[in-house]
Automatic annotation (TrEMBL):
Protein name: Cytidine deaminase
UniProt-listed GO biological process terms: nucleotide biosynthetic process; pyrimidine nucleotide metabolic process
PROSITE patterns: CYT_DCMP_DEAMINASES_2
Annotated keywords: Hydrolase, Metal-binding, Nucleotide biosynthesis, Zinc
Annotated organism of origin: Candidatus Magasanikbacteria bacterium RIFCSPHIGHO2_02_FULL_47_14
Length: 154
């Protein structure tokens, strides 16, 4: 009897997107849990991140509110999962691809482009029509960053 390799293994896309969802579970944010995985073209993970306050800041020190004046909401203080994956990569970002549970906002797009990341694989684009995400797509197009939606296997 000849033993052959199994054929029902998961793709790299599925593997890294699952990882993005797992790391998102570390988020303390009560309304949005986002995760990101940064991998080389050879599928080596170099960084992971989730959305949360910067290191060393107590999770009760700032608001988790979504509405109000900027300084009264989480948006003035939170680091996005994409940013944290880049920070955790120790400058190993050039020509990498990033797996994101959510399509990156305009601020993350700037950081992604500046760090030489060439491909974004995202799962959810729920803010597609928001001006910040329109700007994000425009910047990705101008910088020739490939963006593609990950679709769950059927």
């Amino acid at each position: 009897m000849t033993i052959t390799p199994r054929t029902n293994y998961i793709s790299w896309d599925e593997c890294f997107m699952r990882m993005a969802h797992i790391i998102a579970e570390r988020s303390k944010d009560p309304s949005t849990q986002a995760g990101a995985v940064l991998a080389t073209k050879d599928n080596v993970v170099v960084g992971i991140g989730y959305n949360g306050f910067p290191r060393g800041i107590d999770n009760d020190a700032f608001p988790w509110e979504r509405e109000g004046a900027l300084h009264e909401t989480k948006y003035a203080y939170i680091c996005h999962s994409e940013e944290n994956a880049i920070y955790n990569a120790n400058n190993e970002t050039k020509d990498c691809k990033m797996y994101c549970t959510l399509f990156p906002c305009n601020e993350c797009a700037k950081t992604i482009i500046q760090n030489g990341i060439t491909e974004i694989i995202y799962e959810n684009d729920k803010y597609h029509e928001d001006p910040r995400w329109i700007a994000s797509r425009r910047m990705f197009d101008a910088a020739q960053v490939v963006c593609r939606q990950y679709l769950l296997p059927s």
